[in-house]
Amino acid sequence: MLGSLRTALVRATDRAAIRMTGGVRRPGEPPIVRARLPFLGHALAMGRDLTALLRACQRQHGDVFTLLVAGQRMHFVLDPLSFPLVLKAQDNLTFHEIGQEIGTRAFGYTSPPPGRDYDELESYYGEHLKNAALGPLTARMEERLRIAFDRFTGDDWREEGLFDFSARVIFAAGMETLYGEGIADDAAVRDFQRIDKWFPLLAAGAPAAAFPGLLRARGRLLVRVDRMRPDASPFIRARDLLLGKITTPRNRRHLQAAMVWASQANTLPAAFWALAHLLTDPPGRAAVVAEVEQRGFSDLKRLPQLFSSICETLRLCSESLTIRLVHRDCELTLADGSSITLRAGDRVALCPQVAHRDPEIFADPERFQFDRFLSDTGGPRQFLKGGQRVPIPLMPYGGGVSMCPGRFLANNEVMQFAGLALTQLDIELLEQELPPVDKTRAGLGVLSPTRDVRCRIRRRPRA
């Protein structure tokens, strides 16, 4: 009895030490980068500039190290050659609990637990967002983008912010493609932007009631997605029917509302950056315009220069974290043959942005190079580090079981947006220097600009 109490006390003391300081490093564990602040650890530094913090730690400790972030130990693995090994270690490293935690905090829903219902929901995405199902959605997206361009432009020049314009077009086209015509009015955009503004703090655990107007905006969004419009996409209709079978009506509405954020939050800034970079790169703009005018949008695979431009855009502006929960004490083998010891309850994190800006992988990494991802063979371009092929050189959509299921539709949407904007509109930037990315959203996907870019836009005169 006394021995059990002593063991329980030791474990409780150990957990408390981990939450406050990161605890004591055990043999085989990565080096712990100590922080000045107890509990918060490196959370504030991550919020200011995640990649700068990780690069500084990498220079001192190598590619694997441990940070304390809001009472949680996070082991960062920065060697891109080791990324597949982390993503494949599904027996010991899990994602469901992390996705559940973020979903509950940000949107108030509960995911189905692992099992038949969860597997059915996961397989549903593959059936409706890839392969044959992707074609009709992509065609519908092009149609709604053309309508949105007509809605938000005119024959005369209009001066406005390029980010604001891109966001209004993408939001209207994306929402109407999925949920049906009429859902994307000005009020819907404002409600979405209010939710998106506070998403980083919601995901970190701050209560929704703490932010002015957030609960009302979320409530209005729930009402919007609860009404099934006659021209809603088969994707949304099938998802709604499936959720109706496996969860409660309230949870179904919250899961549908979460899909709005998932489909829009990263696509909006990605569309802006793709267009902005091409507008400030005359050779890239000319190449993309010639390609689109010659081949059209009937088959996006026939637009390699536009595709490369979007890949290059995502390399520069995406800053996501791929995180796994350590399910049980284990060892993780890395690409160089070494291994690290992991403790149950800790987390393992990949930050592809560090590799995206690695000059050994991408020469002159801070420069936008529209044809960087083109290859002479027609297949994927190969990139090397230390003489070895980097297996996942571009990773803007996460990886493994947490890879964004809508990535193909999102990529197609950004390609269509940029191609149509450059060929259907006259756009003149009133400033040539693009703003830096907003680092306060680091870790969550594609970063927004710190400010808008003023421009003039009009519909191109039709012959």
Task: Put the structure in a nutshell.
The protein has 16 helices and 14 strands. α6 packs parallel to α16, α7 (162-179) crosses α12 (267-279) and α13 (282-295) packs across α16. It has 463 residues and is of the alpha+beta class.
Description:
A hairpin with a 2-residue loop joins strand 10 (384-385) and strand 11. The strands form five sheets. A five-stranded mixed β-sheet has the order 1-2-9-6-3, sandwiched between helices. It has a three-stranded antiparallel β-sheet with strand order 4-14-12. The protein has a two-stranded antiparallel sheet with strand order 5-13. The N and C termini lie far apart (89 Å). It has helices spanning 2-21, 43-61, 83-88, 96-107, 116-129, 134-152, 162-179, 186-203, 214-226, 234-246, 249-264, 267-279, 282-295, 304-317, 352-356, 407-424, and strands spanning 64-69, 72-77, 93-94, 158-161, 318-320, 322-326, 330-333, 339-342, 347-350, 384-385, 388-389, 425-429, 444-446, 454-459. It has 16 helices and 14 strands. The chain is 50% helix and 12% strand. The protein has one domain (116-325, 333-459): Cytochrome P450 (Cytochrome p450), CATH 1.10.630.10. The chain is an alpha+beta fold. This is Cytochrome P450. InterPro entries: CYP450_sterol_14alpha_dmase, Cyt_P450, Cyt_P450_CYP7A1-type, Cyt_P450_E_grp-IV, Cyt_P450_sf.
